[in-house]
Amino acid sequence: MSDVLPFAAQETAWIEVIHKMDETYADLVRYQVELEKKNVALEEAQHFLASILASMTDVLIVCDLTGAIQQVNRALEDLTGLSADQLLGRPFQSLFTKDSQLLVDGFAQCIRDKAIHDCVLQLRGRDEPVPVDINCTSRYDHRKRLVGMVLLGRPVGELHKAYRALNQAHTELKTAQKQLVQSEKMASLGRLVAGVAHELNNPISFIYGNVHALDRYARRLARYIAFFHEQGPGADQDRLRGELRIDRILDDLSPLITGTMEGAERVRDIVQGLRQFSSGKQGEYALFDVEPVLRRAVHWVSKGGPESLEVDYDLPASLRVFGHAGQIQQVLMNLVQNALDAMAGMEHPHLKIRGGEEEGGVWLQVRDFGPGIAEADLVQIFDPFFTTKPVGSGTGLGLAISYGIVNEHGGRLEAHNHPQGGAMFRLDLPSLRPGDSVGG
């Protein structure tokens, strides 16, 4: 038998070889395309990571377990003044001052157990050491083997600047708030001028008249006594006694003195109320009865309002509150003043005030019979500078400051529309000192 394949068989073998070559070439082309796609994706990933590293403001140090630096970012280069080529391969410990060496030398061992957070170290900066808040975590390869560590740090100086700026802004805000409170208080005092002047005028006029009468009586008594010293008792005694009306003087002395004392006490109470209202001290928190404070607030504010105002009280005999009486009076005056403003122009303005006690607190309601508050305004009625009054008629601070005062007292101030018409403000205040119990 001949070993030479027939011509047809040889042709078939060559065709198979050519097919195999075509398949191999097609595979090579496909592999080339996939390789190019992966290269493009790899380049994009590298550019993406490079852009992230370049835009980071925190310093980044990637090193192996021995501490040799493998990767850094631009923030570290800018901070140290060294390029990446100068940093790669050197121990990361050399970037920190001697004061920090004891801590950084233990990083490699510490990260085997847990990450290191918020460790403030001194980094050797371009010109001087820079305090840096360092976080250090372990780095693993794709087989979950520990291969190094990653250090991420933020210069503490920037944080300090931010904190200082924040504290300054907070201080300025508190100062502005105090100024606004004082400004609104002065506005409230201005509204009191008419009422207080009227209140003081009556007792002062009474005292003034009584003192003039006492002055006349004193001169007559002095003349009568001088007569006895010069002439002694005799027939003219009765005549002079009647002429000087000594008996009437003696009868009038007691009522005059009593009335003068009552007028002086009334003046004292008014002045004391003013001093209590105008006091800006925050440490005068104490238990006090809010009922007379409320009535005084209504009385003073109503003096500048319409004479036809009707005030309906529904209050218990005593309502004990823990807080600053002057500040609470300012809140109540603001609520009453807003109620009067809401009823401006009404022929028969009516104000209804209710109150009572609840467990650990006191509640008060001030209701007017005006048009009420628009639903859209209810959500911002306590916002600073929000007002529905015409320009020049209101600062928009009264309710905002009142809300802040009540909040500082641990209370609550709410605004609603009454179902039967008009606006209603509810004030809740604690009646216990902080730490006291209801049963105690």
> Counting H and I runs of at least 4 residues, what is the number of helices?
12
CATH topology of the largest domain: Heat Shock Protein 90
Give the CATH class of the largest domain.
Alpha Beta
Computed CA radius of gyration, to the nearest angstrom: 45 Å
CATH superfamily membership of the largest domain:
Histidine kinase-like ATPase, C-terminal domain
CATH architecture of the largest domain: 2-Layer Sandwich
Low-confidence sequence ranges: none
Total beta-strand segments: 12
Q: Main beta sheet: strand number and arrangement?
A: 5 strands, antiparallel
> How are the strands of the biggest sheet laid out side by side?
2-1-5-4-3
Structural class: alpha+beta
Strand content: 15-25%
| Tally of individual domains | 3
Helices and strands, in order, run as: HEEHHHHEEEHHHEHEEHEEHHEE
Percentage of residues assigned to helices: 40-55%
What report would you give on this structure?
The chain is of the alpha+beta class and 440 residues long. Helix content is 53%, strand content 19%. A hairpin with a 6-residue loop joins β3 (116-123) and β4 (130-140). The model has no long low-confidence stretch (mean pLDDT 79).
Précis, in short:
The chain is α+β, with helices and mostly antiparallel strands and 440 residues long.
Task: Using brief descriptors, characterize the structure shown.
53% helix, five-stranded antiparallel β-sheet, five-stranded mixed β-sheet, elongated, 3 domains, Beta-Lactamase, alpha+beta, 12 helices, Heat Shock Protein 90, 440 residues
How do the strands and helices of this protein lay out in sequence?
Layout: H1 7-55, E1 59-64, E2 69-72, H2 74-80, H3 84-87, H4 101-104, H5 107-110, E3 116-123, E4 130-140, E5 146-155, H6 156-231, H7 236-243, H8 246-278, E6 286-289, H9 290-303, E7 310-314, E8 320-323, H10 325-342, E9 350-358, E10 361-368, H11 375-378, H12 398-408, E11 412-417, E12 423-430
Parallel strand pairs: 7-9
Antiparallel strand pairs: 1-2, 1-5, 3-4, 4-5, 6-8, 9-10, 10-12, 11-12
Helix pairs in contact: 6-8, 6-9, 8-10, 9-10, 10-12
Organism: Acidithiobacillus sulfuriphilus
Keywords: ATP-binding, Nucleotide-binding
Protein name: ATP-binding protein
